[in-house]
Write a structure and sequence with these properties.
Helices cover 11% and strands 18% of the residues. It has a two-stranded antiparallel ribbon. Strands 3-4 form a two-stranded antiparallel sheet. It has a two-stranded antiparallel ribbon with strand order 5-6. A hairpin with an 8-residue loop joins strand 17 and strand 18. The chain is rod-shaped and about 115 Å long. The chain starts with a helix and ends in a 7-residue tail after the last strand.
């Protein structure tokens, strides 16, 4: 009698295992699906995750990886995040490093893992190296996002690439003019004007003076017998009869 009871118990256990196996395999016919408790059919594993046979929830791809396809299995699932990007947990696609940062390292987990762009260069974002040297007329401190973000101010210029601070912008020389932001060279100070190095724009010669030459810091006094209205490269005329100049 005991032997018969033992055989019946083994048979019941065996049947239970068969039924359980059939239930799991019928709901989740293969890896790449998951089976929610309240559903009667398998659900395709979503992007950004992978699914193990018989589990009732997807498993998110770990930080530093991504998965752009559905129905993934553990063996063919999460890809390493490429250089120039980062991948939080459950990423479907890599996220590019933000402008002003870069990364030559793979499998970054967050934007904070991206490196700050070094001074003297600019980083457009999403790249493994810097995007380029800072151009002439500009300066690029650390974390500069694009080439023309920081122009040299009016009254200065920068003839060289790779500028890293505003100190690389040179003051305009006496007798020269630096009218605009981002200048790479000084302008000639025109005739009829003076450029003393402290002013951004050329200054017209005052009335009673003139300037026949370029690149001057002062204007000449109008000679006796002539008058000068100002802003001219020559005297304005001879003193009229009945007047003295």
């Amino acid at each position: 009698k005991t032997k018969k009871m033992l055989m019946n118990f083994v048979f019941i256990c065996f049947c239970f295992l068969i039924i359980s196996s059939y239930s799991v395999s019928s709901l989740c016919p293969s890896s790449g699906y998951y089976c929610e408790d309240d559903l009667t059919s398998p659900v395709l594993c979503p992007k950004g995750s992978f699914c193990v046979l018989g589990k009732n929830t997807p498993t998110l791809c770990p930080a530093g990886t991504y998965n752009p396809v559905t129905g993934s299995t553990p063996m063919l699932s999460c890809l390493p995040c490429p250089a120039g990007s980062y991948c939080p947990e459950g990423s479907i696609q890599p996220k590019p490093c933000l402008p002003g940062t870069k990364s030559a390292t793979t499998q970054l987990k967050s934007k904070d893992d991206c490196q700050s762009c070094p001074q003297g260069s600019f980083c457009l974002g999403g790249e493994s190296t810097t995007s380029g040297l800072c151009p002439k007329g500009y300066y690029c401190p650390a974390s500069t996002e694009f080439a023309t973000q920081f122009p040299c101010p009016k009254g200065t210029y920068n003839p060289s690439t790779g500028g890293s601070s505003i100190g690389d912008c040179e003051p305009c020389s006496s007798g020269k003019s630096c009218l605009f932001e981002g200048m790479v060279e000084e302008y000639e100070c025109p005739e009829g004007y003076k450029c003393d190095g402290n002013s951004v724009e050329p200054i017209p010669c005052e009335p009673g003076t003139y300037n026949p030459s370029q690149d001057q810091t002062t204007c000449l006094a109008c000679p006796s017998g002539f008058y000068c209205l100002g802003g001219g490269s020559t005297t304005s005329g001879v003193c009229s009869p009945g007047y003295y100049c």
